[in-house]
Amino acid sequence: MIKLFQPWWKKRNSQPTAEVADGNIPKHVAIIMDGNGRWARRLGLPRIVGHRNGMKAVKRATIAADELGISILTLYAFSTENWKRPKDEVDFLMSLPQEFLALELDELIEKNVQVQMMGHTEDLPPHTFAAMQEAIERTKNNTGLILNFALNYGSRREITESVKKIAREVKDGTVAPEDITEEMISLNMLSSGLPDPDLLIRTSGELRLSNFMLWQAAYSELWFTDIYWPEFGRQQLYEAVAEYQRRTRRYGGLS
Ligand code: FPP
């Protein structure tokens, strides 16, 4: 059993860290990081303070995922719908990747983490795109945890674009309609090259997917927690993985 013993000075509450068994670690964990705004409001603070503390939770989740031996951690950092928020908040959210990477990239490199990005990245502000590109470039040969940021990601747009691409191939005569397969569709998704998430986590008590990995999450195990994203840490990731290990995945078949 991998059991994490936290020293007393790091313990924030008396809850024990969940026990995670050695095998059956989910390969790909995807997280809808929700509740930054409500966390801030509860403390009487501006929403952006919630987002900045959300960034700290990104670090905790990354360290815990690495420690557990998870191969891919996908984090929903900005959706195609988030542009509807006030400009100040959007600008702040778009500055966070740069801030996070300025603070953490060296440590990510040291931990052999490979940074990736998934989304409609052509719409990102140049400074956000450049910071991500630099991190991707500097970590591209790393072989450890893949830290995949979903930035300006929207599943319906992703599916629409994939359909358009395949339709063009059908029109060109390079693909016959009867040869279209699920694998071909997966390969045309923004997540191409990554396995589907085994475990999908959402914080803040909301029970929906919010346009996140709709195709890829067909057989993901879902885990919801009421806590807000800025409170998320090692304990919650261990709890989610321990619960995942108790589930039986049947993919529509029989166990
Ligand atoms: C949803 O909470 C959260 C977001 C839209 C942004 C998520 C971004 C982070 C956690 C920081 C990302 C950090 C990096 C390094 C990219 P909400 O604001 O909708 O919360 P609410 O529903 O309580 O208002």
* Annotation field: number of helices: 7
**How many DSSP-defined strands?**
6
CATH superfamily annotation of the domain at 28-154 and 196-245? Decaprenyl diphosphate synthase-like
CATH class of the domain at 28-154 and 196-245: Alpha Beta
The major pleated sheet works out as: 6 strands, parallel
Strand residues, percent: 5-15%
From the coordinates shown, what is the CATH architecture of the domain at 28-154 and 196-245?
Answer: 3-Layer(aba) Sandwich
Provide the CATH topology of the domain at 28-154 and 196-245.
Undecaprenyl pyrophosphate synthetase
Overall geometric form = globular
Measured as a percent range, the helix fraction is 40-55%
Report the C-alpha radius of gyration, rounded: 19 Å
Mean pLDDT: 94
Regions with little confidence, pLDDT below 50 for 5+ residues:
7-14
Which small-molecule species are bound to the chains here?
farnesyl diphosphate
Q: What is the topology, as strand order, of the major beta sheet?
A: 3-4-2-1-5-6
String of helices and strands: EHHEHEHEHHEEH
Which structural class fits the helix and strand makeup?
A: alpha/beta
How far apart lie the N and C ends? 24 Å
Write the topology of this structure:
Layout: E1 28-32, H1 36-42, H2 47-68, E2 72-79, H3 87-110, E3 114-118, H4 126-139, E4 146-153, H5 155-172, H6 182-187, E5 199-202, E6 221-224, H7 234-246
Parallel strand pairs: 1-2, 1-5, 2-4, 3-4, 5-6
The structure holds farnesyl diphosphate (FPP).
